[in-house]
Amino acid sequence: MKINRLVLFVVLICTTFALNAQEQHRIEDKGAVVGVKTNIPYWGTATFNAGVEVRLAKKWTLELEAGLNPFDGKKDDGSYGRSLKHLRLHPELRYWFCESFHKHFLGLHIPYLLYNVSDVKLLGVENERSQGWGTGVGVSYGYQWLLSKHWNLEATVGVGYLYLDYDKYPCANCGSKIESGHKHYFGPTQAAISIMYLF
């Protein structure tokens, strides 16, 4: 009998704390808690992309963005033309100066990349193909404008470090590897103008 009363007392205390915590959560956490977004300029590279951002606290969010370009530029003769084939995962923890999903923020991101790019002078693979993977760390600054109750516009830029591991092939004969190696990259790691829908 005493055990039943003790269990009932513990259940009542836990229920009271849970109801109080929920009420406090409602008071403190007004506004959007989840947003879905897409980076508009990233579509210009024929890359499908989407992101999800989740509110962790009043001034903290966690974002995960993914980009996929499945086009390999492979020709009928087996050689490769210009291609930006890649898969990019971009998690980022953000601190907001005002409140989440509004105005200025700073971010810390840890990107991961699988790539198979060819004949892109800007990436240092003119008349060559390079495939491999990369990861790193960077910081970003951004700003979000409220467009309406559910829509935001975001601009963000980031810089950091990437470690890139690769194999190089000549575009004309992609079966013969020229070299394997790795590269340390310091520079821009993020640039986005995103449209976002908030829930």
From TrEMBL:
Keyword Signal among record annotations: yes
One Pfam family this sequence matches: DUF3575
Xref: InterPro entries: Autotransporte_beta_dom_sf, DUF3575
Leader sequence residues: 1-21
SUPFAM superfamilies in the record: Autotransporter
Superkingdom field: Bacteria
Coiled coil regions in record: none
Keywords linked to the UniProt accession: Signal
Listed name of the protein: DUF3575 domain-containing protein
Organism from which the protein derives: Parabacteroides johnsonii
Upper lineage: Bacteria, Pseudomonadati, Bacteroidota, Bacteroidia, Bacteroidales
